[in-house]
């Protein structure tokens, strides 16, 4: 047996998120079924993290173990034929036997894609919120995120994680292809964290909150103080970063 | 009463095409209902043409008559709030009382958007056909379209039009944003014509037909000789052109 990383993209609209759960179909479940069918043996996968219902990924990573003679190029092609249109396998690479998609990830990048104008072709892959927003002020607030580590205020209540500490390395709004994109990178994220941050930044952009208010919300460590979560349709996991040492070298 | 042109975009996936018909909901019907509700009087619209079920428009034009004191900016905003997410009004302009969205159009532009790679975010707004295709050969065949006028071979059978003559001014494949785009402009189009042309060009690109075969198909004036129509999901009406004389000047 060898260990492999599988890189994939998916549109989350039709799924109850990444992680297998009793109520509704998930990406993990559909992918495990496809791998098990194509490889004719039961395959379990471990994802780099979980995305919530309706959230997308332009790059997600998971690991699985399979026979040593895997023809990865042919497997990618077969999986793409087998899987529905809204899940696309990008590539499969061998990693060291001890590599772990979740524990070895050193960084995760999310993008939140916002359109201020009605766009009939991106209703499921952006959030349409007319604004106006003061993006300069939102960027001033976003920069403050880099000076804190405890993000309890932006975490879903009653989760089972041991700490709410994250190191945020990047957090800013920029324009691309007619959209406003919020890019955020951290070592780890708490559940619902990006959507709660975006929702609160939008309140800053509307003038409902000042940059100081934004800092006070973080310092309060109280989810009730933050703004409403932004809609799932705008959120994309765009990258999971690993140290190069975990990849197998021939 | 004054006459207005309304410019709009729509994703056709959920509709049975532009034109009102008994079996299923259409763009025309939804737009007439929205205009009638917002303006509190029965409004009928005349479109620049019709798009088939599942076909999109990044720019469609229709005309309607309404009271002389229309505040067009406010009306665009109200209509966009009222209409579903997959129909967006771009602008409304006054035209001369005799202007006609269909009869005055001097050119129509369509794009066919093809992806060779599985793209989970564009399943409804591209056609995914893996290829490989010889786009140089497809462009050599597309150029031949400019030398013919009778396109019976690419028309739906049993339609009520008087002639199958069209003047094609542009027809070529190019790459944009990771997609292959076929752009075609003509004074008019027959029903199903673009999808039939694209389907036949794809057969040229696969090597099933030569450029000479493509010409012979046009010359045969027989729909049975052409290739299968390409899927509706890739087709966009992108522009309707009018002489500037028809627009009202204050």
Explain the overall architecture.
Chain A contains five helices and nine strands; from the N terminus they run E-H-E-E-H-E-E-E-H-E-E-H-H-E. Chain A is an alpha+beta fold. Chain A has two domains: 2-104, Pseudouridine synthase I, catalytic domain, N-terminal subdomain (Alpha-Beta Plaits, 2-Layer Sandwich), CATH 3.30.70; 107-238, Pseudouridine synthase I, catalytic domain, C-terminal subdomain (Alpha-Beta Plaits, 2-Layer Sandwich), CATH 3.30.70.660. In chain A, strands 1, 2, 3, 4, 5, 6, 7, 8 and 9 form a nine-stranded mixed beta sheet that branches. In chain A, helix 3 (135-144) crosses helix 4 (193-205) and helix 3 packs parallel to helix 5. The first copy, chain A, is globular and about 60 Å long. At the A-B interface, loops of A face loops of B.
